[in-house]
Specification:
Length: about 325
């Protein structure tokens, strides 16, 4: 396993990170603990959870905590082997302090997470979503407090656009506070909206840790046009979490699978290798339900795709339009 820097934190993380959003349901506790141990045995040292995760049972505003408790149990005696990340900011109750990024919410939420995770620090504390009702200074100063208390080793953001990350970096610089080190965004070869933000992250040493790089399972080749949905798959068990792909998406999946064949890779491993070849990538957060699926992701992280095949992907799932400045300095004067 080749470890990668998590942005300016300098922490080294495995290129695959274990996602835990399905811990609780459909991945029950016993199986989740086994999967976590299997991931560690395979060299995965990065685990992503959140205070709100409770699997398919989650509805917006439900209390969460289930995945963190399971991770806490799985890491008994193994805490020092992993870089542990959890999140704050998404609603986890009906009360006014159960959502957002005020100092009170952040400080209370972390204490509750630490209790469930059975640890006294997290390596990476992540702002789950931006909160437009709280000044950024308030949120950053709460992060600084936690950093000074030793309860967090670094902090990162999720679902932030580059300009929002830029504001956070600028304020941290202004006040001498810790800087965000990572950005967790929805990103895959099928969903490239954030592609143009990757350069910003590379320029400012932000480690990108994308989620849904397998697009919930669509990028594994198991859903085929005209074929029944496989039993026990996400599309079978939880259509609320994954909807049946439209024809245009099926076209893209089929064309991508054939390109993956040119690289002699199954679609799942090609999708992993493609994402890891993008700028600023630190670690891909992958959701898994079985030992085979973790092994498959790890194999994908070892694979590499020849440049001409990588370039061919743009014709199938094009990157978003990149605005160009009207004038720029020629490279040679
Ligand atoms: N920050 C955020 O807002 C945010 C949002 C979403 C997710 N996340 C993080 O990202 C993680 C991953 O998200 P995700 O699980 O939705 O997306 P994903 O990694 O794209 O999809 C994972 C699912 O794909 C299927 N799968 C994985 N490998 C496979 C393989 N080799 N062959 C066949 N099927 C395979 C499994 O589902 P089935 O076997 O059940 O079909 C698995 O649960 C989460 O656990 C969470 O940590 C963060």
């Amino acid at each position: 396993m080749k470890y990668r820097r998590l942005g300016s934190s300098g922490i080294l993380v495995s290129p695959i990170s274990l996602g835990t959003m399905t811990f609780g349901s459909p991945v029950r506790e016993k199986e989740a603990v086994k999967l976590t141990h299997a991931a560690i045995d395979l060299g995965i040292n990065f685990i992503d959870t959140a205070n709100v995760y409770e699997g398919y049972d989650r509805v917006l505003g439900s209390p969460g905590g289930v995945a963190e408790e399971i991770v806490g149990k799985a890491l008994r005696g193994k805490r020092d082997k992993v870089i542990l990340a959890t999140k704050v900011g998404a609603p986890n109750g009906p009360g006014p302090q159960d959502v957002g990024l005020s100092g009170t919410t952040i400080l209370n939420a972390l204490d509750a997470s630490l209790k469930r995770l059975a640890t006294d620090y997290v390596d990476l504390y992540i702002i789950h979503w931006p909160d437009e009702h709280t000044p950024l200074e308030t949120t950053l100063s709460a992060m600084e407090t936690l950093y000074r208390q030793g309860k967090i080793r670094a902090f990162g953001v999720s679902n932030h656009m580059a300009y929002q990350l830029c504001e956070l970096l600028w304020l941290a610089d202004k006040y001498g506070w810790p800087k965000a080190v990572s950005s967790q965004i929805p990103f895959s070869l099928l969903k490239r909206d954030f592609q143009n933000d990757l350069k910003f992250c590379a320029d400012y040493d932000i480690g990108v840790t994308p989620y849904q790089v397998l697009q919930g399972g669509l990028l594994t080749g198991k859903y085929k046009r005209g074929k029944p949905v496989p039993k026990g798959s996400r599309l079978d068990e939880s259509p609320g979490w994954l909807s049946y792909p439209e024809d245009t998406v099926l076209d893209q999946l089929e064309a991508t699978e054939s390109l993956a064949g040119e690289a002699a890779l199954p679609l799942s491993q090609y999708s992993v290798a493609w994402s890891l070849a993008q700028p600023a990538m630190a670690s891909l957060i992958v959701g898994v339900k079985s030992h085979d699926q973790i092994e498959d992701a790890v194999e994908g992280a070892k694979a590499s795709i020849p440049a001409e095949i990588l370039a061919g992907q743009d014709a199938i799932t094009p990157p978003p339009y990149r605005h160009k400045a009207p004038f720029s300095r020629p490279s040679q004067i």
